[in-house]
Each structure stands twice: as C-alpha cells, then as structure tokens.
Amino acid sequence: MNKPTITVIGSINMDLVTVAVRFPNQGETILGEQFLTTPGGKGANQAVAAARLGANVRMIGAVGDDSFGKELVRLLRYEGISVDHVKPVTHEHTGIASITISERDNRIIVVPGANYALTPEDLDSCESVIAESDVCLLQLEIPLSVVERAVSIAHRHGVRVIVNPAPAQPLPPSVLEQASFLTPNEHERTILFDKMDEEAFADKLIVTEGAKGVRIWQDGQERLIPSFQVPVVDTTGAGDTFNGALAVALAEGKPLDEACRFANAAAALSVTKLGAQAGMPRRQEVESFLSKQKESQ
User: Fold this and answer.
1) How does strand 5-9 pair with strand 135-138?
2) Catalytic residue status for 65
3) pLDDT tens string for the chain (297 positions)?
4) Residue 265 phi/psi, 5° resolution?
5) Is 61 annotated as a binding residue?
6) CA pair distance 94, 241, nearest whole angstrom
7) S-S: 259 plus which of 63, 77, 231, 254, CB 3.0-4.6 Å?
8) How many Cα atoms occupy the beta-carbon half-sphere of 70 within 13 Å?
9) What residues does the Carbohydrate kinase PfkB domain cover (predicted)?
10) Superfamily of domain 9-22+33-289
11) Do the annotations mark residue 211 as ligand-binding?
12) What are the domain boundaries of the chain?
C-alpha cells in the first residue's frame, strides 16, 4: 500500500508541563512533583501522530526565531515530517502551552505567539501542497481566516478536510459546509452548534466523548464506537492522536466506523505515557493492540 499523504495546517508549540498531586485552588500556591518541556501544539501533535502511523506528512505552520522554534522544527524533521512550509517569524516568540496535570486530568493555557503570524496568503503559496494531499487536517490554534482559506483551497481541489474545532469557537458557514468531517469533543459540540445546525451537519460529525468513545452518524443513524479501557497516565494529546490516526485511516480508505475504531485504539495507547507526543504509538503497536482486543472478545 502506498503511504497516504496528509497535510497538517496548525499550531506548533512547546509544552511546559507541571505534574502535581492536585490542582491549586484560586489564589493558592502548591508544590508540584515534576516539570518538563515537551513538543506540542495541536497541529504538530496531529502531524506526529499521523507520521508514526505510516503517513507521508507535510506540516504548514509558524514558529518564532528562537530556541524553542528551532528545537521544534528539528523534532518534526526527526519524525520524518516535511517542514518546508513551516515559516520562522522574527517578531514573535514560538507558541507555548502551560499544562498542569493532576488526578488523571489536565488544564491548559495556550499562548499562540508565532502561530498567529500564519496568514491566508501563506496558504495561497502552499496551494499545490494542499491539492496533492489525500487528507487535510486543521485545528483552531491558528487564525480562523487561515482555517477558512485552507478549507476553501482543499474543497476546490477535491481534498477531504478534517477540522478539529479546538479550542472551541463558532465556525464560519463556509467551513461547516465545505469540511468533510468535524471532530469536536462534547464541550466543543455545544459551542459549535444549536440543534438545527447540528441536524444539518450530522453526517460530518465525529464527537469524541472521552472514556465513553466516539459518536458518529451514518445514514441518519446515531452510533457510539466504544473506547478501549487502559491504565491512564496522561490524557494530554489523546484527542490529537485520535485526529491524526483518523486522518490516516480515512486516507487509506477505511470505512468511517473502522477508521474511528483504529483512531480509538491509537488514542487509548497514547494516554498510557506522560507527554502529548511521547505516548503517540507507532503503526505496529496499534495493529498489535487491535489484534489482542479481537482475541479477547
């Protein structure tokens, strides 16, 4: 099978991770147990997830002309991801995410930095890259005008587009209409749609519901694809792993339900290690995990 080509347009961040026994209350200072810096950003995370699962991945994004930016580009290249269209920005710092992990959950503050220096004109110069893709994958940690232009270009060239609407914000009608799939979690779903809108776009919806699984609609029928039960260490990046894996599975021609099961397996494996990208599995791990699940049924 030829490797599918996936273009990821999105954020590239350095994650500043603190692990604590519990979250501090308002106005309270507590001692943490561990601190680490690790590559992140929803765009970069999804690119790494797709690359580890066997796709040919091109990244479109922006970093600051600083040590974080240089290191993040080096790490993307190490994963086999094309960084020809990652632009360095001299007047902005590389994006960061401040992440606190506790009690098997996380809280995140993102400072976009150079991610917001990406422009619709940058996308115009990358039109041929998008046009040659099997799937285009986007998130909302970059300007909405860039997302809108990317979806328009992909739609014009008949390229399937997955929009992961996180962080949650209302989407322009053109994005809702032209996207192939929308992958909100339960919170993002309530911000994206009122009841009428949701019914109109139900066949595009893939709603991630954490430990419960993923909800899809096929031929007017609602269906829950259950998640896999695993020991949880860190949920950071689970959604990004799901989206990267979903893009790979759909690009390979898997039916939607099978693609979601594959993505659920990848996401389950990702939460068994600390760090957004550190836990992202490789193809053999996912296939072995799915094989063992079948044997146990």
Assistant:
1) parallel
2) no
3) 689 999 999 999 999 999 999 999 999 999 999 999 999 999 999 999 999 999 999 999 999 999 999 999 999 999 999 999 999 999 999 999 998 988 778 888 889 999 999 999 999 999 999 999 999 999 999 999 999 999 999 999 999 999 999 999 999 999 999 999 999 999 899 888 766 577 788 899 999 998 899 999 988 789 999 999 999 888 888 999 999 999 999 999 999 999 999 999 999 999 998 878 989 999 999 999 999 887 665
4) -65, -45
5) no
6) 22
7) 254
8) 4
9) 5-281
10) Ribokinase (3.40.1190.20)
11) yes
12) 9-22+33-289
Q: 183 among the known binding-site residues?
A: no
